[in-house]
Amino acid sequence: MITAIVLIHAAADSIPETAQAIADIEGVAEVYSCAGDVDLIAIVRVPTHEGLADLIPTKISKVSGVLDTDTHIAFRSYSRADTESAFDIGIEAD
């Protein structure tokens, strides 16, 4: 599975509607509204690079209110849960 983080600039007057429309697209796992340089961040998970190449320009970028996107493909995931589970291998709880 390919995970990508899509930074989205959106029209200020339609951020909630734009976010929901993006969240409703197949392949979009989560959408966050945020403060900072971008208005929305979408987490996208698709099986192939071709799926990603189709999803961003033909679906997300076409949503009303989307002004610009910047896509970052994730190579690896690191989280506390992943680290803790790695140390729990072979250890049984009492």
TrEMBL record:
<dbReference type="InterPro" id="IPR011008">
    <property type="entry name" value="Dimeric_a/b-barrel"/>
</dbReference>
<feature type="domain" description="Transcription regulator AsnC/Lrp ligand binding">
    <location>
        <begin position="6"/>
        <end position="76"/>
    </location>
</feature>
<dbReference type="InterPro" id="IPR019887">
    <property type="entry name" value="Tscrpt_reg_AsnC/Lrp_C"/>
</dbReference>
<protein>
    <submittedName>
        <fullName>AsnC family transcriptional regulator</fullName>
    </submittedName>
</protein>
<dbReference type="Pfam" id="PF01037">
    <property type="entry name" value="AsnC_trans_reg"/>
</dbReference>
